[in-house]
Amino acid sequence: MTDRAYQLFEEQQQARGINLEQVKKSLKALKIETPSWGYGDSGTRFKVFQKVGVPRNPFEKFEDAAQVHALTGLCPSVAIHIPWDKVEDYSKFRSHAESLGLSIGAVNPNLFQEEDYMLGSVTNADPAIRRKATDHLLECVDIAKETGSRDLSLWFADGTNYPGQGDIRKRKAWMHEALAEMYKAMTPHMRMLIEYKCFEPAFYHTDLADWGMAYNQALKLGPQAEVLVDTGHHLQGANIEHIVAYLIDEKRLGGFHFNSRKYADDDLIVGSTNPYELFLIFYQILSAGQDADPAVRENVDNIAYMIDQSHNIEQKIPAMLRSVLNVQTQYAKALLINHAEVEEAQRNNDVLAAEDAVRRAFEFDVTPLLHAIREEQGLPLDPMKAYLSSGYPKEILARGKGGASW
Amino acid sequence: MTDRAYQLFEEQQQARGINLEQVKKSLKALKIETPSWGYGDSGTRFKVFQKVGVPRNPFEKFEDAAQVHALTGLCPSVAIHIPWDKVEDYSKFRSHAESLGLSIGAVNPNLFQEEDYMLGSVTNADPAIRRKATDHLLECVDIAKETGSRDLSLWFADGTNYPGQGDIRKRKAWMHEALAEMYKAMTPHMRMLIEYKCFEPAFYHTDLADWGMAYNQALKLGPQAEVLVDTGHHLQGANIEHIVAYLIDEKRLGGFHFNSRKYADDDLIVGSTNPYELFLIFYQILSAGQDADPAVRENVDNIAYMIDQSHNIEQKIPAMLRSVLNVQTQYAKALLINHAEVEEAQRNNDVLAAEDAVRRAFEFDVTPLLHAIREEQGLPLDPMKAYLSSGYPKEILARGKGGASW
Amino acid sequence: MTDRAYQLFEEQQQARGINLEQVKKSLKALKIETPSWGYGDSGTRFKVFQKVGVPRNPFEKFEDAAQVHALTGLCPSVAIHIPWDKVEDYSKFRSHAESLGLSIGAVNPNLFQEEDYMLGSVTNADPAIRRKATDHLLECVDIAKETGSRDLSLWFADGTNYPGQGDIRKRKAWMHEALAEMYKAMTPHMRMLIEYKCFEPAFYHTDLADWGMAYNQALKLGPQAEVLVDTGHHLQGANIEHIVAYLIDEKRLGGFHFNSRKYADDDLIVGSTNPYELFLIFYQILSAGQDADPAVRENVDNIAYMIDQSHNIEQKIPAMLRSVLNVQTQYAKALLINHAEVEEAQRNNDVLAAEDAVRRAFEFDVTPLLHAIREEQGLPLDPMKAYLSSGYPKEILARGKGGASW
Amino acid sequence: MTDRAYQLFEEQQQARGINLEQVKKSLKALKIETPSWGYGDSGTRFKVFQKVGVPRNPFEKFEDAAQVHALTGLCPSVAIHIPWDKVEDYSKFRSHAESLGLSIGAVNPNLFQEEDYMLGSVTNADPAIRRKATDHLLECVDIAKETGSRDLSLWFADGTNYPGQGDIRKRKAWMHEALAEMYKAMTPHMRMLIEYKCFEPAFYHTDLADWGMAYNQALKLGPQAEVLVDTGHHLQGANIEHIVAYLIDEKRLGGFHFNSRKYADDDLIVGSTNPYELFLIFYQILSAGQDADPAVRENVDNIAYMIDQSHNIEQKIPAMLRSVLNVQTQYAKALLINHAEVEEAQRNNDVLAAEDAVRRAFEFDVTPLLHAIREEQGLPLDPMKAYLSSGYPKEILARGKGGASW
A30 φ, ψ to 5°? Predict the structure, then answer.
């Protein structure tokens, strides 16, 4: 059935003028970074449920991540969080990763889990705390040098809970000071990815509240600073694909933290709430990938796709598999958009034809295509099934409960 | 200055036809229940910051609550959470409360902090877990008998994170089964207050998601079941005062969990984000309090006003003082509405006059009025200042860190 | 290619245990009512753009609607709006409809376009206006008798723009009075479908603001009153499929006004913003359709599926075609859910398997299936293409501009 | 009573360290521009209700605006909308304004009410329409020269309703082209105020969707381009005062379009939904007004305060009076903030003290203060009452119905 399905799929797409070899090439080039913390226990403010088999240290987290990569071919790098993934010997850590077929990806500083940071880290009114926080940023640059990481992903919990609590403009200046100091410490091949978030854990104002604030910082810092879009960090109704297109057009889209939400920053499996939104994000990216301006195309080529989720109730590795498979599926669908057709309808101001040309690609079932590339790559056709029927799920039970929290 | 201020205030209000003696009587009758968990440490999913001086057990929580009551005269009862406030000997607990001038208020079951409840408590697909959860509800009825509590406040974290995860309609039936069993166990003087919440910690669907679902359960259970409105548990834009008016009109408003939010369920100090909303809630209550129907008036008289906040970054006792003072302030302002004037403008379809008649009451400064009743009640004019300059803040430092979490 | 595609599809689905004959039968039974006003010009508060070829009267609206039905086989009835579709002789109107293969569907009173209704119709403080509004409701019952319509779809713009402007509880009582009078006038085979809406055109409070308020009215009126869910009439984040499941479980889901929105009540083509949401609505309906309780199944069988959109910038007939085709597509996908598989995963509390069992059905391409049933019904395989290449689009240009507004 | 009230108020504020003479000076300097269209009929997409007495032409609109200024002393200029306020002879128009004690304020182009602009004006895929739209912008610059207006307020309805409908990045470029051409045509004393809006009338994407997009355009255009904040044009939850503080800090806050909303862009009377938000906006402005950087202070001094409302159900002139009085009231309250006290609490990370220092100013009743400055300016103490008891409301009835729409 699989062969016939692919054959039929191929005929269909060729009839639409889609170059399937190019599509396959693009699909095989897709890389999605998984986060070390996505393999640990996480939860809500009400409770962190503890799962049996959760990794107990950074090394085990990478072992789990290696499973995801081995089964999907999609996830050769793993983001780390400092100090959660702090180790004594980074060269040993790096070797461990490499022995698993992985590399260490983005370094994520943590400036929200110490008592000192209750009222802000780099924007705290207390200069000693600001210094301490900035030092941690510099420490992360040093770690990135050791791990060979290109990207430094910055998310700040900094903000206030009440009107008047903080001086918004002073805090803005302090934020810039810290980022500027960190920026200066980076090597030329490094990138600073600046994340924004509208609220939580700050409930009145967040110092970097939206893409505009992150972008403005990046502009002032220089070309190695870019914006990181976390798909869950927007107010209800925000058109995320618009922001994505905008940032690429300004050559400042650094990457994504993928996840899904229905209400606030729910951190669910990406693609599980509104898969069409994920598809539309890729539509914007692929459309920009055909731009006449090489700088725009270069930005597209350098987007870091990363998962950032909290698997509160799910088995961690299957949840990660589902996540990267969802990304792959929507990316594959977006690759089936016939851009010439869309553009012609747009040029003619033909609203319904343009909408149809985009949506139609979403409606194809890309399973035959994904099976074909997996077969060509020597991967299991159904990575989830392969995982569940492997020995690994049972093997890790020996770790017991009480593994790493986040 | 105080006397002259009150004199002037009195003249102003009398000129508007406000019966200040009645206003003062109403103000003195206002009772706001504080929650035992509001004195403990709480936080966000990112971090629970630990404060020095936080109470270490239910007894100390009541001691702190007694401070709030002593300084404001507003908070003679304290809600408890089971098992957080589980004690061996409830008569001893009750005596302790009474010795502090307090009574034990609403009993709140906790069905969200055990591993078993990860996928639901009373709506879990596993009948053994449903049984366990229902037994906890029955246990809380028993505790309420021992503590002499009238109200059982029920909030369920039950829900799902993904489409398909649970059978929405079966879960609805299971919810009803559990509530019906609990309802039957209650004594005739008890009330079941059913809370609703749109999301968090469930991120796709929550079994009791809105007032309509809580109300419908109450309808089916009987007259001792009513709806509990938590001001933070609504989707953005929801008109909470409309819901309040509606529920009173159906004689099913059981009470409030007061707090404030700008984004989701932020659990900030009530009145700190949009004080006008709190005022408008009281406007609806006071308007209904003049209804011709005695059943409506009876509902108004029996509303349980309760605080439900998470003081993540604030000093706990001052945060509670600020909360109850904010409630008192907005209630005082609402008492200055001239209902006859509002109604005449409404009758005449005079939009601007009606709006003005309500808003004008909000614009008065009620400080002279509050000073006057505090003086008459032998309370400090400025309870916050009195607290901060008392010995208590220093005294509790001896408790050290690591007090009760929530 | 079509035949091979269907053959493959059939094999796939049979391998999953899906009874395709049953699926086809269900698909052929699907009926979607289109609204007469969807063929007229509509717009935003900023501008109503006028299209050439828009029908100039109710008779021409039905001619356009007949095109949609002829090409899709899905739309045998057309909802009317009074007074927009008021005619002198309803038997002539009915004959016209029948001659086109159509019947007259739901009757929609209009209580928002007369100067008198500026501050409310059935909830206006002025009793004369309430009387006039109620009389219009009764007039619509009479018209429904003449048109043979079963359903009376009620949407009220009634509400207020400012706090204090109206007495919320009095207005609630007036609403009930009017509905009760109308209910009494209905014949036993009629149904009152009560719509709710959170805001617009009322900007502070709307008298029937949410499903709970509509449901509560229906409960009090009697079994012929049910709730009408307009997919655009919810606050951001509302879980519409939850509400749908809830109402069916209470046997009070009357029907739908389908459309799509990203922000507020945008009235876009249904399925164009988040097609997964539409699929999930059908999942709930189909799940309930297998309930053991015959009353639940009866409710499912009697749901009125209706389009309610404003085609501000689109060509009207193509926009309607796209709408009903989107509904058909998502319904077809939902029919591919293997409920036994979902239920087993739910029973086992297997979160990811349950989610997968639902989502997988969404990912199938149902084009071969839709082609098959269209072929069996003698319909064009691609109704949109068939319409665009027919003579009708040119023919109606002769109508010129300035057709019916809404 | 008035004198005693002010005396008491003065004592209170002096005790708090507030310089009342400075406060009064600031209050007397407050200028709020009213919009010509706020005196005309407006409505929702459902209906524009027509009021008796609405001005029939630009000249009468200015006569109504003159009433508002005469009674409040706050509104010496009036914004105009082209072509609604297009006149043959602008010098005559200007003289008419001056004879009424008014000047012509901001010029607002209208690019949303012609058939050509259905799918965009300056971002339309059709170059001829883009040209036409840009020409209108240039025409408005010319008109501004004739009227002596400094500000050009630009709001674009441009956007799309469906994914794929338009090329987001091309439209971005076209927007910039048009603005750049207009910018070049401006005289050195002119300012371009760029407004943003998240949605409506475009329902999928709006070309200038948020402050970041407007700001980025301004940055690229040059120092005469600034951002215009319409308080209703934000997604739910957006912290508007944060955006205000941010823009001032970047010296790019051009001004405000004041109005109020509970749900979407409701265009209600400013301050009627959440007066505290308006107060907090002024808090940020006044805080920045004390900045050490003269460029920041200069930005504060040049903020254009403008009303932009749709009085759908209200009497127009009273609605405008209420609006400017609400602005004055909240501004007066914000002037009572003791910034030194706030800053000290912020410096000490004293959350509750800082919050209190801001909120306390909001709780004062500023009526005595407003009475005092009105008396000093020879204005009626209660402008609304003065208007209603004047002959003007009756006088304008002679205009009949059918006045200017918007």
Answer: -65, 130
Q: Kindly state the tokens that stand for B249.
A: 């009109």
Q: Phi and psi at residue B89, in whole multiples of 5°? A: -125, 105
E-assigned strand segments in D24-99: 34-35, 43-44, 47-48, 77-82
* Architecture of the domain whose range is B31-316: Alpha-Beta Barrel (3.20)
CA distance D269 to B42: 39
Question: A19 is written with which tokens?
Answer: 């170059």
Closest residue of chain C to D313, computed from CA coordinates: C118
Instruction: Provide the β-strand partners of residue B260.
Output: B268
Judged by CB atoms closer than 8 Å, whether chains meet at C268 and D203 is answered as: yes
Phi-psi region of A120 (alpha: psi -120 to 50; beta: other; left: phi over 0): left
ipTM of the complex in this document: 0.97
B341 vs C contacts (CB less than 8 Å) = none
Which part of chain B is CATH 3.20.20.150? Answer: 31-316
**Tokens read off for D183:** 């910018």
Give how far Cα C394 sits from Cα of B385, C56, C267, C387, Å. Answer: 80, 16, 26, 11
| β-pair partners for A226 | A193
Is C305:C13 a contact under the CB 8 Å cutoff?
no
Given an 8 Å threshold on Cβ–Cβ distance, is D346 in contact with A246? Answer: no
Q: Which residue of C293, C349, C352, C363 to mutate against B (max B Cβ within 10 Å)?
A: C349
Q: How many CB atoms lie within 10 A of CB B363?
A: 18
CB contacts < 8 A, A to C, total 74
Measure CA of the first residue to CA of the last residue in chain A; give whole Å: 42
The two tokens of residue C394 are: 């040119």
Please tell me which of the candidates B118, B162, B264 has its beta carbon nearest to residue A49: B118
Q: Which two tokens stand for residue C361?
A: 């059905």
Q: Are A46 and B113 in contact (CB under 8 A)?
A: yes
Enclosing H/E stretch for B227? strand B225-230
Cβ pair A404, A56 in contact under 8 A: yes
> Which of 225-264 (D) contact C at CB < 8 A?
236, 261-264
Could you tell me the CA-to-CA distances from A304 to A239, A359, B176 in Å, in that order?
20, 25, 48
Could B272 and D319 be called an inter-chain contact, meaning their C-beta atoms sit closer than 8 Å? no
Q: Which of C236, C261, C239, C246 is nearest to C214 (CA)?
A: C246
What is the crossing angle of helices D275-288 and B275-288, to 10°? 160
Q: Are A386 and A345 in contact (CB under 8 A)?
A: no
Strand partners of residue A225 = A192
Task: For chain D, 406 residues long, give each residue's pLDDT as a single digit of tens.
Answer: 678 999 999 999 999 999 999 999 999 999 999 999 999 999 999 999 999 999 999 999 999 999 999 999 999 999 999 999 999 999 999 999 999 999 999 999 999 999 999 999 999 999 999 999 999 999 999 999 999 999 999 999 999 999 999 999 999 999 999 999 999 999 999 999 999 999 999 999 999 999 999 999 999 999 999 999 999 999 999 999 999 999 999 999 999 999 999 999 999 999 999 999 999 999 999 999 999 999 999 999 999 999 999 999 999 999 999 999 999 999 999 999 999 999 999 999 999 999 999 999 999 999 999 999 999 999 999 999 999 999 999 999 999 998 887 7
Sequence-distant (≥ 6) Cβ neighbours of residue B15 within 8 angstroms: D1
